[in-house]
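Narrative summary of target 7.
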Amino acid sequence: MKGEKLFGVSARPAESGGDGQGLKLVLHRYIIDAIEESGRNLLEGTRPALAQFVTDKVAEYVARLRLAISRYEMERLAEELVDELTGFGPLEVLLRDNSVTEILVNGPNKVFIEREGVLHHSDLRFIDAHHVERVIQRILAPLGRRLDESSPMVDARLPDGSRVNAIIPPIALDGPCLSIRKFRKDMLKSSDLVAMQTIDQSIYDFLENAVSKRCNILISGGTGTGKTTMLNVLSQMIHTQQRLVTIEDVAELQLGHPHVVRLETRPPNAEGHGEVRASDLIRNALRMRPDRIILGEIRGVEVLDVMTAMNTGHDGSMSTVHANNAQDALLRLETLVGLTGRQIAEKTLRQMICAALDVIIQLTRMPDGRRCVSEVVEVVGTRDDVYVTNTLFRLDRRTGFGFLREAINPAGDKLRQLDY
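Modeled conformation, tokenized:
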């Protein structure tokens, strides 16, 4: 009896953990299969009709397997399943699971989750593509964001701070796709990064000195390498008497600081009006008497504004950028400046970038999912129109642990003051 499969779903609760949560996962798939087999569009009907159907199926499942569950527990389980079917569907259980850091939905039958930096295929699934779209619309409804054929992509933030991205056909060829990067409620501290071998003590000591000396810092890395987390940790090193202004497309930063002004960009409305860009917010931030400006990510025309701010008295500013290594990060900034349409001589542009930046922290994700600092580079200047940099720390990739400290000969005015 325990090896039996009901509607194509394994009837053994132990396969999903053997606890109440595991039983719910199995029942969720079982009920979705039952709805499909019934041919009835129960999710579009009334809640009482769906509740009765779910209750009957839960009772049938419990009876077949002869599970030791009280009537009260069975009714509560059925009610929770109805909440999930009418709410965020199979995402409900994932959103409540603190060990899940990212949820990726590639159509109705492919749900992936990230735990400890490693992606896993989940057994959860949706009924069909329309079920995925209904869940996406439920997520977006209280946020006032629009998603339809005329606007098939959306980037939003849940009330708890989790970041949501959704895209639907005809842009997404294999069905609606959803990405949720969950908001971490317990902010990581520098000691956590050392314990997780993201950084070692020598790098931490250096970064603490660099922040206190008001070095302008750029954090570089690929998607999911921990750039925002590193930015949060660096913010904890800033003196509490300083005033910070943060600018983000979607607010993710959790700055552990008493004096923070948080600004967020705004997309255009349905008529194409009302857009507030990062470059607009940077210019406004300059009038707000900031000691430091923290830009969540440099990704467009705001690159010139943030470099201008770094060059005009707002030392100690920080930002992130997508790049594979520190040298690529500098070239990425050049490319973004080119996209603004401004005609700036290459020599002048490189001198401006070097004057704006002091330190680049490069992050990477190891094959085992561990995120770590792969190098810390000082931006010295230019020589013969070529960037001159100095590698201060580099990850020992042979072992994947520990950091090799390079020969240090700092040339920057601020870095020369640091105690090595």
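Residues 395 and 401 are 7 Å apart (CA to CA).
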